[in-house]
Amino acid sequence: METKPVITCLKTLLIVYSFVFWITGAILLAVGIWGKVMLGPYISLIADNSTNSPYVLIGTGTVIIVFGLFGCFATCRGSPWMLKLYAMFLSLVFLAELVAGISGFVFRHEIKGTFHRTYTDAVLNYNAEDEASRAVDYLQHTLRCCGVYNYTSWFGSVYYPSNGIPASCCINSSDCNPEDLRNATLALNKVYHQGCYERVTSFMETNMAIIAGVTFGIAFSQLIGMLLACCLSRIITANQYEMV
């Protein structure tokens, strides 16, 4: 088989791969920006302190976009050292994603424990005004849950003695007045019965296998790019082939 058709085929495959890799970076960048703008207050409920997750996604996405373009340039240029550098970067991305996926799966119970602590603290110190309180309201309204384990979690909060259970717990906001929420007996039929901790942890357990599978699938896809880049670099070097 002639060398030139093989090189052309490998270049085509690597350019397609680099383009897909670039799109992955753009998606991570978009998700990071969206997470920072829209979900900043709510992500804080699963961390003891302010989380840097959106910034990690933004930084990772930006780096992938740059190296995705670099991969396309290196492939079109037919430079062996550039292709080796690209393969080295892909190997680093592979290792980082692999470690992140394994860590997330192994420490999932710690993540649940952290969420339990931070969410319990947010409920007990709820005031309906600060960022954590708005995050609690959003979570309860969106997931249709109330309190940590159930609506009785609110009985120990600083908010309950004066205001009762927050309105975000109401099943039907039009049939839920402040007087009902101050009365534990009447509130029983007005608010959601399932706690938010159970909702969130149940979602995590149900989807952990899917999340892990997607993470490892994306990670191992880097091996394809590494293989293509290394093969192309070796063939170009062996045959002293250059793009004109």
Average pLDDT level: 81
The N- and C-terminal alpha carbons lie at a distance of 22 Å
Write the element-wise H/E pattern from the N-terminal end onward: HHHHHHHHHH
Secondary structural class: mainly alpha
Residue share in helices?
over 70%
Give me the Rg, rounded: 25 Å
- Named CATH topology of one domain: Cd81 Antigen, Extracellular Domain, Chain: A
> Which stretches are low in confidence, meaning pLDDT under 50 for 5 or more residues running?
none
Number of strands: 0
CATH superfamily of one domain: Tetraspanin
Text of the CATH class of one domain: Mainly Alpha
Q: What is the name of the CATH architecture of one domain?
A: Orthogonal Bundle
Report strand %. under 5%
Q: Biggest β-sheet: count, sense, barrel? A: none
General shape:
elongated
Number of continuous helical runs = 10
Keywords: Disulfide bond, Glycoprotein, Membrane, Transmembrane, Transmembrane helix
Function: May be involved in cell proliferation and cell motility.
Family: Belongs to the tetraspanin (TM4SF) family.
GO cellular component, one term: plasma membrane
